[in-house]
Amino acid sequence: MELEVINREGESTGKKVTLADAIYAIEPNDHVIYLDVKQHLANRRQGTHKAKERAEIVGSTKKLKKQKGTGTARAGSIKSPLFRGGGRIFGPRPRDYHFKLNRKVKSLARKSALTYKAKENNITVVEDFNLEAPKTQDYQKVLNNISEKNEKTLLILPDHNKNLYLSSRNLPKAKVLPCSQINTFELLNADKVLIFESSVEQIENLFN
């Protein structure tokens, strides 16, 4: 498929770019998309949750009442999970949520996500530009020119660009990533995917 290249003012440059069908027009696989997004979200979890169990509660170990004759259930400790302030039964413990996913599965998931965006006409190729200094206002003006208001945007760069990254960091609906960090979650989470002209070839090399 062919796309027109626009500049930072949202105007046509007269140039066209051909997007490879092997990346942007495959048969999407929903299951691998699910797996890749699941792994991405799992890897973001800190896993530092912790609840105290009865052995970790600070409190007296004295038996609360005599074993028999009270008419109520036996109770041996104030730290019992049955009492308020007691330990928690099978509470959460620190753990690692990471799990392995094959490289080919990830690649297929990202191609599927790009295919969905291409089918919805939500991919725009932008002529390479840079900002002289990190300034959120300048980057917001560029977004206003090349995307609709309140759209979530993902800008894919050929390499890390400090000025563009810092300029977009305070915008809740704008994300900037280099080609090497493309992931299925960010692709699907964006309403519009903006690709630098020089990134198109790099993306093809990355997936091939």
Automatic annotation (TrEMBL):
**Keyword annotations:** Ribonucleoprotein, Ribosomal protein, RNA-binding, rRNA-binding
Alphabetical list of InterPro entries matching this protein: Ribosomal_uL4, Ribosomal_uL4-like, Ribosomal_uL4_dom_sf
In the UniProt record, does the keyword rRNA-binding occur?
Answer: yes
UniProt-annotated stretches for the region Disordered: 58-77
Q: From which residue to which does the signal peptide run? A: none
Give a GO biological-process term: translation
GO molecular-function term, one example from the UniProt record: structural constituent of ribosome
* Presence of keyword Zinc: no
Entry's SUPFAM superfamilies?
Ribosomal protein L4
Report TM segments: none
GO CC entries: ribonucleoprotein complex; ribosome
Which top-level group of life is the source organism from? Bacteria
What is the stated purpose of this protein?
Answer: One of the primary rRNA binding proteins, this protein initially binds near the 5'-end of the 23S rRNA. It is important during the early stages of 50S assembly. It makes multiple contacts with different domains of the 23S rRNA in the assembled 50S subunit and ribosome.
Q: Summarize the subunit comment.
A: Part of the 50S ribosomal subunit.
Entry's family note: Belongs to the universal ribosomal protein uL4 family.
Name listed for the protein in its UniProt record: Large ribosomal subunit protein uL4
Q: Tell me what organism the protein belongs to.
A: Microscilla marina ATCC 23134
Q: What is the lineage of its organism?
A: Bacteria, Pseudomonadati, Bacteroidota, Cytophagia, Cytophagales
